[in-house]
Design brief:
Blueprint (H helix, E strand, L loop, with lengths): L2 H15 L4 H20 L10 H13 L4 H20 L26 H8 L8 H14 L3 H5 L6 E2 L4 E5 L5 E5 L2 H14 L18 H15 L7 H16 L2 H8 L4 H4 L7 H11 L10
Antiparallel strand pairs: 1-2, 2-3
Length: 297
Amino acid sequence: MNTTNDIAAFIDHLRVERAMSAHTLDAYRRDLAEFVHWCAEQGIDDPTRADANHIRAWVAAEHRRGLSPKSLQRHLSACRSWFRWLLKNGVVAANPADGVRGPKAPRNLPQVLDVDEAVQLVELDTDAQLGTRDRALLELLYSSGLRVSELCGLHWNMLDLGNGLVTVTGKGNKQRTVPVGSHACRALEAWREESHPRTDAPVFPGRGGTPITTRAVQIRLRQLAQRQGVYKRVHPHLLRHSFASHMLESSGDLRAVQELLGHADISTTQIYTHLDFQHLAKVYDGAHPRAKRKSSG
C-alpha cells in the first residue's frame, strides 16, 4: 500500500466522517508524516508494520528532540487513530499504538477575566464605529460560551431571541442549544434593527456578506480590549473560559457547564473546577451525615 495515499485517505475520512477542524487535520497530517520519516530513518520501509516498541522509540526520540508532553500526546493520538482506521480496513491485524502511553501533560488552569473585567470589556459604547455589532458579538461570546468557530458560523435563523436561545454546530458536527442572556439578547436585537439582515444571513458578516473569519474576530477583540482598558491578552477563547469559570463558581454544577460548553468528555470541563475550598468544605459540612459537629453539653 502507498503510505502517502493511505494517510491522505485517512485524513479525508476524518474530515468527512468525524468533521474534524482544518487545524486538527493539519496537525495529524504533520504528525503522521513525521512518523513515516522516522520509520524510514530506522529502515522500516512499511510504517504499517511498525510494532509497539517502534512507536515507543519514536515517542522517546521526539521527546529528546524537545517536544512537549502535550505535543507527544497529540502525536500518539494521530498514530493511534491511523492504526485504528487501518485495522478497520483490514490492513493491519492489531493496533500497536493502543498500549503506548505518552508522558502526562500538566493541565494548566486557563487564564480568565474576573467578573468586573468581563463587564468592563463587553459594555462598549455603541455610538462608536461598528459599536452595535461589536457589543452584540462580545455579549454573545460571554453570555453563551461559544467557540469562535460557532460564533462565525452563526446565522440569524439559529437564534431565538424571544426565548433567549441559540443553536450552534460544534465539534464533531454536534448541535447544541444554549441560553442567551438578557443583555446579549438586547444587544443582538439592536444589531438586527441596525443591520436589517435576511433570516438566513450571517449574524456577523465580514467582507462581501460572507461570515466573519475567526482571524478577524481575534484581531477585533484585541483592539476592543485595549479600547476598554482591559490589559490581559484578550482572545475569543478567553471569553469562553471566563463564561465557564463564572458559571461553575456560581452554580457548582459541573455537568450543566459541560452541556453548555458542548464538551464530549467531562474531564475537559474539570479544568474549571477551581472552586473556593472553603465553599466546598461548607457544602460538605452541611450535607454529609458523618460531618455534623457534635453539640456541646
